Amino acid sequence: MAEPHDDAPAGTELETHHEYEVSHGTAVIAPDALVDPGLPPHRPRLTDVDPAAEERAVRQVSGWFFISMVGSIFAVIAYFAFPIFPEDQLSVRLNTLFLGLGIGLALLAIGLGAVHWSKQLMHDHELEEERHPARSSDETRAASAEIFHLANVESGIGRRTLIRNSLIGALVLSPLPAVVLFRDLAPAVDPNVVLKETFWEAGMRLTRDPSGTPIKAADVTLGSVFHVIPEGLNELEHDMLNEKAKAIVLMMRLKPEDLKEDEDKKDWSYQGIVAYSKVCTHVGCPVALYEQQTHHLLCPCHQSTFDVTEHCKVIFGPAKRPLPQLPITVDDEGYLVARSDFTEPVGPSFWERH
After folding, report:
1. DSSP E strand stretches across 247-312
2. Contact 17/30 with Cβ under 8 angstroms?
3. Which residue in 282, 276, 300 sits closest to 352, CA to CA?
4. Residue 150's pLDDT is what?
5. What distance in Å separates the CA atoms of residue 147 and residue 22, rounded to the nearest whole number?
6. Residue 230 pairs with which residues in a beta bridge?
7. H or E stretch including 225?
8. Residue 4: what pLDDT?
9. How far apart are CA 272 and CA 286, in angstroms?
10. What is the rounded (10 degree) CA torsion for 56, 60, 65, 69?
């Protein structure tokens, strides 16, 4: 161990390594290899003594990184080449199989290439590293910079351009399948338009969910609650049933004098009967808990609470806007019908575009 350097801070010892001085507190490469009498002497690898073997190892490492690139690209292609159809279980299996194979190959090849690089080409000395608490001195920072320089020299990443460039390519492409997958989850059209247009239309009867039985105004007693869907919704084809997620409605009857309605919305209710979207404006959970005495609607997911007497305005919780109201009236036979579709987007507030 070297004696303390004259210019070093108090309590700091310096060691000389490869013609430069490094203070304690950094992970440094010691000057001498460990010598354990109980172990056989260290033998150089073939890549250390044979330039042809070294070049061959460089090509093998780069080959793994190129294989990783192929796996990433294959995963993206497979995602579109094997689309998922909800009614076809085989399509789900094929999409999952080939997508998983591509992503797995991309990540496995990066790992194998890194391991092969470390075993065959990086520094192969058995060295001792002395460490103790780091000091943020100028000497420490200078030593750290020199260590990065040594790491570059010993790994060869600076001069082995084929390995470096193929590794960069593999790492750049490896997130590509995830980017494509998550991007494909986004709607292809403006969500504000999609969520504003539901299955409801003027004159469409309100029916019970899930039976589809039309509801007469006389059937809705004071304090009762009905889970409602548009007439004919339960007869849609399987691939159209996602319309139900936007059109589900909760209907209840209050005393007309309990309703505090805006002037421009007074005709949206019928004799105290009101209907509101069940889709919470926070993150879209179904709002289905009705407190009859307080006239409050509660979302069970995050406890957003809405006041039915005042157009379902938010009185508690993380939701930022009232539940959209469905304007209703009755037809000639006394059945409850919609006056129109919702006049604002249903669902979470983050879909709104102002």
Report:
1. 249-253, 273-277, 289-291, 296-298, 305-307
2. yes
3. 282
4. 87
5. 10
6. 206
7. strand 225-230
8. 43
9. 23
10. 110
Our CA angle for 327, 298, 235, nearest 5°, is 50
pLDDT digits (tens, 9 = 90+) for 190-249: 555 566 688 899 999 999 988 889 999 999 999 899 999 999 887 766 556 667 788 899
Q: Number of H helices and number of E strands within the chain?
A: 8, 12
Instruction: Please tell me whether the peptide bond between 348 and the residue prior to it is cis, using omega within 30 degrees of 0.
Output: no
Q: Give the integer Cα–Cα distance in Å for 163 and 117.
A: 9
**Cα separations (Å) of 282 from 13, 83, 309, 349?**
60, 31, 20, 6
- Which secondary structure element, helix H or strand E, spans residue 208, and what is its range? strand 206-208
Residue 290: phi and psi, rounded to 5, are -110, 125
Using CA atoms in the order 206, 208, 214, 219, what is the torsion angle rounded to 10 degrees?
-100
Q: CA 204, CA 219: separation in Å to the nearest integer?
A: 17
CA distances for 146 relative to 25, 33, 142, angstroms = 14, 20, 6
In CATH terms, the fold of domain 191-351 is Rieske Iron-sulfur Protein (2.102.10)
129-174 pLDDT, tens digit each: 666 665 567 888 888 888 888 888 888 888 888 888 898 999 898 8
Cα–Cα distance for residue pair 254/220, rounded to 1 Å: 10
**d(C-alpha 115, C-alpha 61), whole Å:** 9
Q: What is the spatial distance between Cα 208 and Cα 217, in angstroms, rounded to a whole number?
A: 13
3 state DSSP class of 322: coil
Cβ contacts of residue 19 below 8 Å, gap of 6+?
A: none
Residue ranges for the chain with pLDDT beneath 70 = 1-39, 86-87, 126-136, 185-196, 236-242, 350-354
All structural domains of the chain with their residue ranges: 14-184, 191-351
> CA 247 to CA 343: how far, in whole Å?
13
